[in-house]
Design brief:
It is built from 4 helices and 4 strands, in the order E-H-E-H-H-H-E-E. By secondary structure, the chain is an alpha+beta fold.
């Protein structure tokens, strides 16, 4: 079977977790809501032809890898986000480009704020 170079964009949007990330003791004790968005560029040619999950980048696995990393406490969003990227890339070497955005909802900033976010891309 001849396959082309069909590049696809897989997006996992607004995965929500409750976790304990932050530099301040209160954040480590009380916790907070976090949203994670992931954008993955990958070659979808084979999966598009075969219609088989075995030939696709399984986004259920991406979710599980992300959850596993979010459940491990970090002080900084930079550290958490980098761990998510490393975990996904090590499981799916066929990834062409990976972008991960982590948002801490209602951060303890002394004022009203929807969220603070960090995006890393490799």
């Amino acid at each position: 079977m001849e396959t082309g170079n069909t590049i696809g964009l897989i997006e996992l949007e607004e995965m929500e977790f409750y976790a304990y990330h932050g530099c301040y003791e209160q954040e480590q004790v009380v916790g907070n809501r976090f949203l994670v968005n992931i954008a993955i560029h990958t070659n979808c040619s084979v999966a598009a032809e075969t219609d088989s999950i075995n030939d696709a980048l399984n986004y259920v696995t991406v979710y599980e890898l992300t959850k596993e990393q979010v459940m491990q406490n970090s002080h900084l969003l930079e550290h958490l986000t980098k761990r998510i990227i490393q975990s996904i890339k090590s499981s799916f070497p066929q990834i062409i480009k990976l972008k991960v955005k982590v948002s801490k909802m209602n951060p303890p900033m002394g004022g009203q704020m929807k969220c603070v976010s960090l995006t890393l891309e490799e």
